[in-house]
Specification:
The protein is mainly alpha-helical and 285 residues long. It has nine helices and no strands. Helix 8 runs antiparallel to helix 9.
Amino acid sequence: MAAENAPNAGEYIVHHLTHLQNKEMSGIIDFSVYNLDSIFWSVLLGVVGTLLLWSAARNVTSGKPGRFQAAVEILVEMVDTQAKGIIHNAESRKLVAPLALTVFVWIFLMNAMDLLPVDLLPAIWSAIYEMQGHDPHHAYMRVVPTADLSTTLGLSGAVLLVCIFYNLKIKGVGGWVHELFCAPFGAHPLLWPINFVMQLIEFAAKTVSHGMRLFGNMYAGELVFMLIALMGGAAAMTLPGILLPVGHIIAGTIWAIFHILIITLQAFIFMMLTLVYVGQAHDAH
């Protein structure tokens, strides 16, 4: 009976890829709709990351450090080294280096949510939803904020604002406006419109690719975990499939180990591109 009511593979994936939203969309694009699950997990993990770094700074010792302090010190030194190699303005690094550290830790934690069992948190949410008298089939919950394009484009958009700030701070309003209209092809008045359009395209391309890269990798990883979970579901409903449960465990373990590299690498790449783009804002063309 349970197998008869169970969703098929397509319904299972669609359900897991549906966001918990504040209301139904009225069209293809509706900016009044928010993905509440992405907002909740992003804020929660941001608080967790802040508390971890605050705890390390609060309990720092000058003697032999513990494992947690040593790990944080290695991370801080790594980010500071990268910042010094890209941003040569020492005054700017006072803000940009901690910003890059925060970006790395925050994105790593959001990515790491993908390592939790696919059905764990959604199942808990479905149970709560059912206790409130609602249909559990409509209890949507996605727990990987970086697999949501609105989250990653929001992060890359924030980096764009930081770049604009440093363009204005380092070059001044006049200097940046001159660069917008006179680079990359020259200061001839006939080239001003072309230069300006090219500058806008560059800013847009960097921002979109910055967010899309993180989203694409995490979305693909989320899908793979769902497919592996479906293998386990098929194993639970078929007695002859003796090797299927074994394959489910092996595939899940291998992908989880490999995914640790992916979530770390994607956090590092996003942090490095943040430093690169902010560093470019310090350079004159």
